């Protein structure tokens, strides 16, 4: 154990004042849970006064949540800790100098969709801000999902350069990846086990002291910082892989004329120790800020950290990247199903009016980051279709008109394409939809298995569904 940083930590005593950099889906609930811990005296939420996010500072200091969508308990908790004076949001990063621990929860989106390189600029700016005010004995924790090797790599370098201090000697440094799911942020933070990985044992111990008090049923799982980075990227890579396995099965079932959900039920009936299969759900594609990029973080990590040492089948693509490509094909498949459906009624994509139901990447949420609906809309427009988008949760998206009146979106639609499994779409009534479409043969494409194929088929629809090889070639009702 490094005696130096432990000594400085001991001189500082127990953690009392905490900073959270990045007031987003991860930083806000984390900050509120820290502020609700009795032994932590004060939590500062640091937010840049940026044009897009600066509004959060006033909202949070009024005790209001800038996050929309269903987040059980969050609004009340924010109001509680703000009223108690235990939390304050600020853009004054110099307050960091007063703190014992600082966490960074800053998104790492792609620079662009082509070369799949992460945009670390915001994270690097956050690290510079923290480094500028870093003091001996402080703990810095990265919560953002990063390429394996980052914490001990450029994060450490930036912090040391800005502060003149040395990680592991003057300050503690760790990675504790977030594992939250939109819609259950607080519950996940309290109940999921927390991976805590320090650059050394003293850093791991200090980070454990920070996170243990907010865990209810979850427990800390200690490891190295790089192992923690690989754990985080792997948990999403494996989820993406499992979804891709279901999507490929769905495509196979369509080609073989069977119902993928029958197969899913059959395989899922295998129960018991070690024989259960992870049968997830096929769908219109995989979106969000986690699964669409974490595979590439893991791939980049092994290229950087394991270069020349990786033994892998020559010439074969990464299984994980192939899974990404299968999942990214699903919006293309949805367009192919739409094209096939329109063709059955003598229409084509060019000139067709498509009602795209669901923009958010996940059901009953307003989270519209990297949604599979986006490539579908772009490719449909390129093919000459007019696309109108409905979403009951998403307020607005730059460059995409989101309509909130479902009847208006369905009006005169040649094809209705369901991309997100919002609960509202489960109650679509065939006759009502058909009347709004004003055509005798509307097409409906179900990307999330939310409607009953027979109810629409017997009312004259042309039906297509992901994995529904048993229905996709149905006879047209008279
Ligand atoms: N999806 C499918 N089929 C499935 C599950 C999801 O097509 O069976 C699609 C969704 O429609 C969505 C995308 O995949 O477009 C991602 O869905 P998700 O449920 O994985 O939601 P995320 O992206 O918010 O994943 C998060 C991750 N959590 C963190 O990164 C902390 C993931 O590791 C969790 O497993 C997931 O939440 C969860 O299970 O809560």
Would you kindly provide a written description of the structure presented here, covering whatever features stand out?
- With 478 residues, this protein is an alpha/beta fold.
- The protein has 16 helices and 14 strands.
- An eight-stranded mixed β-sheet has the order 3-2-1-4-5-6-7-8, with helices on both faces.
- Helix 2 links the parallel strand 1 and strand 2.
- The longest helix has 32 residues.
- The protein is elongated.
- It starts with a helix and ends in a 13-residue tail after the last strand.
- The protein binds ligand SAJ.
- Ligand SAJ binds next to helix 9.
Shape: elongated
Class of secondary structure makeup: alpha/beta
| Count, helices | 16
Tally the beta strands: 14
Helix content: 25-40%
Radius of gyration: 25 Å
Point out poorly predicted stretches: none
Major beta-sheet overview: 8 strands, mixed
Mean pLDDT value:
95
**Ligands bound to this protein structure:** ligand SAJ
Order of helices and strands: HEHEHHEEHEHEHEHEHHHHEHEEHEHEHE
Strand content: 5-15%
């Amino acid at each position: 154990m490094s005696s130096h940083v432990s000594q400085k930590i001991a001189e500082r005593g127990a953690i009392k004042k905490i900073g959270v950099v990045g007031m987003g889906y991860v930083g806000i609930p984390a900050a509120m849970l820290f502020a609700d811990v009795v032994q932590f005296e004060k939590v500062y939420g640091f937010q840049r006064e940026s044009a897009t996010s600066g509004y959060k500072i006033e909202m949070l200091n009024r005790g209001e949540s800038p996050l929309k969508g269903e987040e059980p308990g969050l609004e009340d908790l924010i109001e509680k800790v703000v009223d108690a004076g235990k939390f304050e949001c600020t853009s004054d990063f110099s307050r960091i100098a007063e703190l014992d621990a600082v966490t960074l929860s800053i998104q790492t989106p792609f620079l662009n969709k082509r070369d799949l390189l992460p945009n670390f600029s915001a994270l690097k700016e956050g690290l510079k801000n923290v480094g500028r005010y870093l003091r001996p004995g402080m703990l810095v924790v990265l919560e953002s999902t990063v390429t394996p090797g980052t914490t001990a790599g450029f994060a450490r370098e930036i912090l040391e350069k800005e502060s003149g201090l040395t990680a592991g000697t003057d300050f503690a440094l760790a990675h504790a990846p977030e594992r939250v799911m939109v819609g259950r942020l607080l519950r996940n933070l309290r109940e999921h086990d927390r991976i805590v990985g320090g650059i050394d044992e003293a850093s791991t111990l200090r980070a454990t002291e920070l996170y243990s008090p907010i865990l209810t049923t979850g427990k800390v799982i200690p490891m190295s910082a790089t192992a923690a980075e690989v754990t985080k990227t792997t948990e999403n890579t494996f989820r993406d892989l499992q979804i891709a396995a279901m999507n490929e099965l769905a495509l196979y079932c369509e080609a073989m004329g069977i119902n993928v959900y029958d197969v899913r039920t059959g395989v899922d009936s295998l129960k018991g120790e070690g024989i259960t299969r992870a049968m997830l759900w096929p769908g219109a594609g995989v979106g969000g800020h986690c699964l669409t990029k974490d595979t590439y973080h893991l791939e980049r990590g092994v290229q950087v950290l394991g270069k020349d040492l990786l033994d892998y089948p020559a010439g074969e693509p990464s299984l994980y990247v192939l899974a990404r490509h299968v999942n990214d094909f699903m919006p293309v498949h949805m367009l192919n199903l739409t094209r096939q459906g329109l063709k059955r009624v003598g229409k084509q994509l060019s000139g067709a009016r498509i009602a795209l139901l669901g923009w958010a990447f996940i059901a009953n949420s307003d989270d519209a980051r990297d949604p599979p609906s986006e490539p579908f809309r772009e490719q449909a427009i390129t093919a000459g279709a007019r696309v109108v988008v409905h979403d009951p949760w998403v307020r607005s998206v730059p460059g995409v008109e989101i309509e909130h009146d479902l009847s208006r979106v369905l009006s005169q639609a040649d094809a209705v394409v369901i991309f997100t499994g919002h609960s509202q779409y489960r109650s679509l009534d065939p006759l009502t939809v058909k009347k709004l479409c004003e055509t005798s043969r509307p097409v409906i494409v179900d990307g999330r298995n939310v409607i009953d194929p027979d109810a629409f088929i017997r009312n004259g629809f042309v039906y297509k569904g992901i994995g529904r090889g048993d229905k996709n070639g149905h006879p047209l009702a008279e």
